[in-house]
Specification:
137 residues, alpha+beta, Trna Endonuclease, Chain: A, domain 1, six-stranded mixed sheet, 5 helices, 20% strand, globular
């Protein structure tokens, strides 16, 4: 069975091809639901907080792996329990030392650094005003 890309994945692909589409990607992202990996001791598919999902630590930064679809759980993460949260819920829950890693280890991977996450927490899109005037973001 072939995987078809969802709206968020298509927006990311377009932004990767044409940086004038970055603003649109952020708009789609802010309205998206993402898949996270529940901690192994989590008994239900209901996540109460970010503390209930798996994170990765490297130095002072914590990385939160998230996925744009359930597809990785069907193909690569079969033993893991997927949970779904809105992107807004996710950014509201992470602290200033946490980076979000969308689709880790895939061609559609995107790292959101803490400054970028702060922008998204405020529901700001710094790229929106420049998408028509600037081709070199």
């Amino acid at each position: 069975m072939k995987h078809s890309f969802n709206l968020l994945e298509r927006a990311l692909i377009e932004a990767l091809k044409d940086n004038r589409k970055i603003a649109h990607f952020y708009e789609v992202l802010l309205n998206s639901k993402l898949w996270l990996i529940a901690k192994r001791d989590q008994e239900t598919n209901h996540v109460l907080s970010i503390a209930d999902v798996q994170m990765m630590k490297k130095g002072k930064l914590t990385y939160l792996p998230v996925f744009s679809s359930k597809y990785p759980f069907e193909k690569m993460l079969k033993k893991e329990t997927p949970v779904c949260l809105s992107f807004v819920e996710i950014v509201e829950a992470v602290d200033e030392n946490t980076a979000i890693l969308l689709n880790p280890d895939t061609p559609l991977s995107k790292l959101f650094i803490p400054k970028e996450i702060a922008m998204l927490k405020r529901k700001q899109n710094y790229f929106k005003h420049s998408e028509k005037t600037n081709n070199s973001l």
